[in-house]
Structures are given as structure tokens and as C-alpha cells.
Fold this sequence. Notes:
This protein is of the alpha/beta class. It is built from ten helices and ten strands. Helices cover 43% and strands 14% of the residues. Helix 4 (115-132) packs across helix 5. The site of one zinc ion has 5 residues, from helix 6.
Amino acid sequence: MILGAHLGIAEGLPEAVREARKIDADALQIFSKSPQMWTGPPIAPAAAEAFRAALREERIRATAVHHGYLINLGSPKPDSLEKSRSVFVEEIQRAELLGVDGLIFHPGAHLGSGVDAGLRTIAESLRGAIEAVPDGRVRLLLENAAGQGTALCSSFEELATVLAAVDAPERLGVTLDACHLFAAGFDFRTPEGYGSLVDRIDGTIGRAMVRAFHLNDAKAELGSHLDRHENIGKGQIGLDGFRHLVRDPGWAELPGYLETPLDEDGYARYAQDLVTLRSLLEPVGGSTEKPSARRRERRASSTVK
Ligand SMILES: [Zn+2]
Ligand SMILES: [Zn+2]
């Protein structure tokens, strides 16, 4: 897995890329504007170009924009739905300008209209958004929900229903959030549990639809439906669960973004979580060489040519 994190852009777009490299992140997720606001200032083409140049210079291998929280593509309220749909198209256009791989979004919440109506509304929203940006290259990635309140798509069956209804597999994909999976009742801490999770993926959305991960440990217990992130290895999932995810060769070329809690030390906790995750990639009981030393060596050799 390509390991990275969600970083803020308050200091600027290229600065977020430099920060990512400083903590040894190979993948970067950002918001393209404040997530608590409907809209943000337009992205100047020069700023977008500086961002893309920084990504190349710092060898960031995977990128995503996470959408703003006010959007609900499954809303039964006409005004809110209309606003959500138009702002979602803006989110896609901003992500296109930034040239990221994916736009990660929460499918939506039905707010009492029922699961079927909610899923139908989400599918219609996505069809409209895809038509509005016909030549879009950024993949739209539905994020699995923890299942809090009326949030939809905490199950693979619901994700599969939306994907089938939109019927545009070349434009869509799924981001799996480890904390949300666990909160929704998927226990992947044992090899057997992880195996049955993968079987469930294969039997519903198909593993090819999985395009990214959010690597968050969970504060709350299995099946709690609570969306409470914790630092890697400090929560209820623990290191065994993350070992299964990050070592799976099927996900080797997919990004995993940290959205774990930070403190007054800034991104130091991310750096620590990345070290923890990389230690899980090492062969069990294998080489005694320090992973950091090997990494430096690999990077040095790749810069020589
Ligand atoms: Zn999210
Ligand atoms: Zn979450």
C-alpha cells in the first residue's frame, strides 16, 4: 500500500505537498476548500500548476481531494439536494484542476426517507454529476460509512446498489475507511475475519472497485456505528487488523491516507503512525535491518538515475 495522510492547505497547496514529504508520506489527501463551507475561493490556475509541480518534485505517488461535509447527495429535501448537486460538480471541477487521482466523498444520508429512496437519490446525483463533467478524469470514490444516523453505504450491498444504478464503472470507485468498516461491524483483526471481509468485497462491489483506503484506528468498539478515529495501534482495531490491510498484495498500488487525531505537535503524530504502518510491511521475523535505513537506500538509488 502507498502510505500517506490528509494534510491541510491553509499554508498553500504546494506547501501541503512539502509537508507531506517531510513526514515521509507518499500519498496526499487534501480538502480543496474549507470542508465546513458550501463554496471556497476559486483555485487560480497558477496555484494548481504549482501544486502539480510540487507533487512531481516530491514524488508523491497518489493524491485525493476529500469533499466538503455539507453536501448530501441523498437528501430528500429539494433545496438541499439541489445545492448539494451543484456544489458537488464544483468539487469535481476543482479536483480536475488540481489533477488528483480521486475525489473521495460520503455517499449521503437519507434523513428519514428510507434506504431505498436514499440510494436512488444518490445514484441520480452521481449520474447528473458525471454528465455535467463528461470528460472528467478524476475518479469519484464513494467512502463507506460507519453507519451513524441515517448515513448510507455502511454495507457493501448498499455500495454495490449505487454503483450498479449509476453504471459508470470507469468514473467510479470506492474508498474503504478502516475505522468505518470496524464501526459497521466488520472484524478484520484475525486472518479469518480479514478473509471473510475480502470475500464480501469480492461478492458485492468486486475488489477492482476499491481504489483507496483511509487508515484510521477506531476509538469505539466493533459494530458501534460511531465514527471516532484513533491513532494506529492505539484503538480497538489494533496492529493485527492494519497488518492484514497494508500487507495485502492486492492493495499494493493503492493509497492509504491517515486521518488520525493530531495534537499540538502538528503532523508529528502522522509521522509516527506512518512509521508504525511501515513496520507492518516488513516481513514477520525477517530481516533485522531497520526499515528507515532500507527506505533511505531505496530513495537514494531511485534518485541516481
Ligand atoms: Zn470521509
Ligand atoms: Zn470517519
